[in-house]
Design goal:
This protein is an alpha/beta fold and about 250 residues long. The protein has eight helices and seven strands, in the order E-H-E-H-E-H-E-H-E-H-E-H-H-H-E. Helix 1 packs parallel to helix 2, helix 3 packs parallel to helix 4 and helix 4 packs parallel to helix 5. The longest helix has 29 residues.
Length: about 250
Amino acid sequence: MILKEFQLDGKNALVTGSHKGLGAAIAVALAQAGANVACHGRVPNPGKACGEIRALGRKASYFTGDVADAKVCVELIEKTVGELGSIDILINNAGTIRRAPAAEYSAEDWDEVIAVNLTAVFRLSQLAGRQMLLQGRPGKIVNIASVLSFQGGILVPAYAAAKGGVAQLTRAFSNEWAAKGINVNAIAPGYMATDNTTALRNDPARSRQILDRIPAGRWGEPREIAGAAVFLSSAASDYVHGHVLVMDGGWLAR
């Protein structure tokens, strides 16, 4: 049985980038805790998450669009409220990555990564926060940061810059909204087995370097982030504000 403080019955959530991977696992976990969930992706195919959410007896919607587009951000909040009746939880999970040596990193790749991983987080948090304030009841915003919010990484200058920014945005919004009943926090995953790390996992030398440093000795699984997302979306975290929760198999402790 889920403790009352972790239950999300009657709550309505939007999870960006929930077509698959971390976002899909988080979306289903929120539904398991009782929430209705609006899912989002860049492709028309909604993936498996929506079906699993409906099988749990919760409402599910699927919206498409590129969050790098400011209009899409507006539409996602409006459609979530229109379909579900409110937005009580926002999970800013949508992200992208481009790898290249710093001296060769293109302006186009920089602009895309910053737009999706940082600017969209600002826009969606701002829009959702406005709606939560209008609703006049508590709200939760959970951003997906990264261990590269704390480190520079290799071959990913835009990603590292964006994720560092996500950590700071989390604190900045939290400072303004904590007293108004809106919790803004973040989860910083380590090296997870998702599409974003396919290139690393397929590179024997780089994969071994990474695994040798992770005390847990393995890549993380999307489902392992889900519990933290439920916690930060629930009343159990009501006194948690501006925190970046690291889930990295011990990577930063090494």
